[in-house]
DNA sequence: GTTGTTCTATACTAATTGATACGGAAATGG
DNA sequence: CCATTTCCGTATCAATTAGTATAGAACAAC
């Protein structure tokens, strides 16, 4: 459907990607509209608000794009064709690699994107907290699935696994931001996964290094 | 030594504590001078700058105070009278409890205090990164010490332990901020420490729950 | 009580924040 | 060509940012 009127002069998609990079680097609040407009191709305030509505609306769109691209590293959590152990291991390894890759900002936008917020931006903080809760739930579902299929016993130790893996996953955001490389985190993941094996009644899946 | 002149009307120490709480909750950048002055007892701008110099100088003082109080939970790392395994376990358990205690903000100021920063405040970010590096070094020293005394073998798996524990430690800041309670993290720590035991050649220290 | 010192209150600075108003430019559809 | 639609550039908004200037108030020492 052809739209009438003067066409937009900048590439909305590229502008969104540029905003994603800036928000990922600095976080929500410290990123000013001036910086955003500059990195989006020196667009005017009018163009900005016409195309994206507001700073918060842009951020929400940025988070959405992040989840659809970089954030895909954690989708194994919801892939029931994968053995639960493998799903978690893949999630950790792919996150480690993604968060340490230098062709884009390091760390995780969902963990670090709005970690410093004044009260008036609590909605933004809540947005990311909800995503983290979703991840937590995905990890727990994998462990539950493994208990259900008899690989893991429903022991107290098993019940600590979701927190253990989630805490490590979120901690990688800090380590990646501080300069840790993929290889280092990946090696730690290998050691971490041994906990699973030590709790397994009967091994159902083998370790895979993608 | 008695100082001449009009004495200060507010309690500098209490004001510093109030600033600590505010910075801990919101982080460095989103915390405005107006908020600070308000929570410090509605002190005037003149009083603020006379007593603390600048926002950044206040933050540095706040970090110092944090390290001298709440941050003391990680001092076992440098206590060579403790068995290395015990030092790390104590550090994790005490951090978990401290970060989840509700009589003050949750999470860790060193991890979360300046995670969102614009370029002009990079010095603040660097300040906290240096502290995290110090922690990382302390954890590694414990593992090295354990290898040196023959408890752990210098295997590849052993060499991943510092990253493993550090990542988990820093990850707790996120989990605590998201509402996890001490008991939950503490249980995960119990499971995490089993990795150490599985790598130990000969157990030299027993698990302690403070 | 006077002097000297250090505090506080008020007003203010220049710069920046996120967001708008408005007029003109540039395209489409007829 | 014209009419309509949409976008862009500029100027601007009120509010807030970190930080100061100035004048006077409140204490100590003498």
TrEMBL record, chains A, B:
HTH tetR-type domain boundaries: 9-70
Keyword Nucleotide-binding recorded: no
Pfam families on file: TetR_N
Residue ranges: DNA binding: 33-52
Gene3D superfamilies in the cross-refs: Homeodomain-like, Tetracycline Repressor, domain 2
Keyword annotations of the record: DNA-binding, Transcription, Transcription regulation
GO terms, molecular function: DNA binding
Name of the molecule in the record: TetR family transcriptional regulator
Organism: Acetobacter pomorum
């Amino acid at each position: 459907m052809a739209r009438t009127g003067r066409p937009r002069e900048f590439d909305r998609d590229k502008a969104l990607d540029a905003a994603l990079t800036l928000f990922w680097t600095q976080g929500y609040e410290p990123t000013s509209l001036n910086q955003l407009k500059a990195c989006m191709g020196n667009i005017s305030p009018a163009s900005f608000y016409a195309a994206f509505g507001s700073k918060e609306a842009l951020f929400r769109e940025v988070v959405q794009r992040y989840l659809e691209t970089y954030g895909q590293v954690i989708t194994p959590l919801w892939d029931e064709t994968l053995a639960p152990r493998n799903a978690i291991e893949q999630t950790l390894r792919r996150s480690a690699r993604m968060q340490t890759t230098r062709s884009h900002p390091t760390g995780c936008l969902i963990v670090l994107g709005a970690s410093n917020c004044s009260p008036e931006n609590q909605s933004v903080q809540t947005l990311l907290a909800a995503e983290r809760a979703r991840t937590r739930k995905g990890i727990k579902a994998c462990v539950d699935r493994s208990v259900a299929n008899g690989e893991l016993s429903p022991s107290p130790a098993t019940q600590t696994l979701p927190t253990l893996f989630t805490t490590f996953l979120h901690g990688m955001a800090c380590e990646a931001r501080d300069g840790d490389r993929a290889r280092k985190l990946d090696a730690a993941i290998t050691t971490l996964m041994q906990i699973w094996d030590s709790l397994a009644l009967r091994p159902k899946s083998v370790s895979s290094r993608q």
